[in-house]
Design goal:
Chain lengths: ~200, ~230
């Protein structure tokens, strides 16, 4: 409908998650009609990011350095290692400001039907960290799904081989949640993992 | 033409996101084998998410290979699998997903699937139930060999001194034993395969060797990924 270049821009924006044709069109027109400066800045930063951002060689978080800011921060506790499924999980835990250890990002979870096995989630790299670093506790923070639990158990078995204490993050009723809307499985877990007050 | 809504018990074998609010589920059903269906997630207020190993009640409609789920709810408590038992559950699901035919009556296999989950959740010797499921799956698919007669039509002698060579396309062939090979089984082991006696299976490692051998041509060149969890 528009010029080929604008159509290309709309199609490119549609690649973003949750962005359909209408939203992509709105974004493209906004950038071109109302915020050319912002559009230029976005293009520059996007280009630079694609060019320079890679994975941290130690924890596999996205960074433009060889090692990320968390891995090189001397105030982080090297005895603690938190294993998560994705970089977004690192951001979530960091926003809670309670964890001061290091991370390892699996970039997925064990899902045999999808062809994702131990090798695909970086178990070789994680085992190398178990072997070469002085880790005292590994906190397994994979999601409480069937695949997340399988991944957690697989990591637990490997941590045991290196006599590293393995712990699992707690799960149950969300803060502010209502019991009547919580499914039976979550409730059963919450009751079996209850603690004294 | 009015589309008929079908009501069925089912288990989720696999799910993958289709969009932010919709999933494509592969469901194991008693009447139609494995079906694929589009499921719209309920509002965020409800935490229900369909997951494997949980008996569900589904209402679906559609004439094409991708059905539409109009309703999905829990029909019972999920089988609680953890640790290596969970790995076994994932192995069973991968087998079902790889080998089961789409939209084909599967009452007996559905019952076998239910039984293997029950054993994985509760039984002490859960590994044997995996072997029984594999044997039942071979039977259901029509690839189980004759455990009573060899390929020449002679009855198989269930003795530890008689030896048979297993050929996946023909069956068991009586041989004179020279040296042990992966596809050679004693008559006694074949008797065990025929009886599916769980107690006797516990001490017999050849059952696993047989099921691996028998499933191999059905699985093709792509190995089962779930096996890597046990390494």
């Amino acid at each position: 409908m528009f010029s080929p270049l604008i159509d290309q821009l709309i199609n490119a924006l549609k690649q973003l998650p949750g962005v359909g044709p209408k939203s992509a069109q709105r974004m493209a027109l906004h950038l071109l009609e109302r915020d050319r400066h912002g559009a230029k800045k976005l293009a520059d930063v996007l280009g630079q990011s694609v060019e320079n951002v890679k994975r941290c060689e130690r924890c596999r978080i996205l960074t433009e350095q060889t090692l990320c800011q968390i891995c090189t921060n001397p105030r982080r506790d090297p005895d603690l290692l938190c294993v998560v499924e994705s970089p977004a999980d690192v951001l979530a835990i960091e926003s809670a400001s309670v964890y001061k250890g290091l991370y390892f990002v699996l970039l997925g979870k064990l899902s045999p039907i999808d062809g994702i096995g131990p090798k695909e989630v970086g178990m070789d790299e994680l085992n190398a960290r178990f072997e070469n670093e002085n880790i005292q506790e590994v906190i397994i923070a994979t999601n409480p799904t069937v695949e997340g639990e399988a991944t957690a158990h697989y990591i637990f078995e490997h941590a045991q081989k290196y006599t590293i204490k393995a712990t699992r993050i707690a799960h149950g009723i969300p803060l502010g949640g209502e019991l009547e809307y919580v499914d039976g499985g979550t409730l059963a877990h919450a009751i079996s993992s209850r603690r004294e007050i | 033409m009015l589309m008929v809504t079908i009501k069925t018990t089912c288990f989720v074998i696999h799910s993958r996101p289709f969009s932010d609010s919709r999933l494509i589920l592969q469901l194991l059903t008693p009447n139609s084998g494995v079906i694929s269906a589009l499921y719209r997630l309920p509002s965020k207020k409800y935490t229900f998410r369909p997951k494997p190993f949980e008996p569900l009640l589904a209402y679906y409609k559609g004439d094409h290979s991708l059905k539409t789920l109009t309703s999905l709810e829990q029909e019972g408590m999920a089988f609680s699998l953890s640790g290596r038992r969970l790995f076994c559950g994932l192995y069973v699901n991968e087998l079902v997903q790889r080998l089961l035919r789409v939209e084909e009556e599967s009452h007996t296999l559905f019952a076998d699937y239910f039984a293997v989950l029950e054993h994985l959740a509760n039984a002490d010797d859960y590994v044997t139930s995996l072997r029984v499921f594999e044997l039942n799956l071979l039977e259901y698919l029509g690839y189980a060999p004759d455990y009573t007669y060899d390929i020449n039509g002679d009855p198989i002698v269930y003795s530890e001194d008689t030896y048979y060579l297993y050929d996946s396309s023909l069956g068991f062939k009586h041989i004179v034993f020279i040296k042990q090979a992966i596809n050679i089984f004693t008559g006694q082991s074949i008797g065990l395969l025929n009886s599916k006696n769980k107690q006797a299976m516990q001490t017999n490692s050849t059952i696993k060797r047989f099921t691996r051998l028998a499933l191999k041509p059905l699985l093709g060149h792509k190995p089962l990924k779930a096996r890597s969890l046990f390494d």
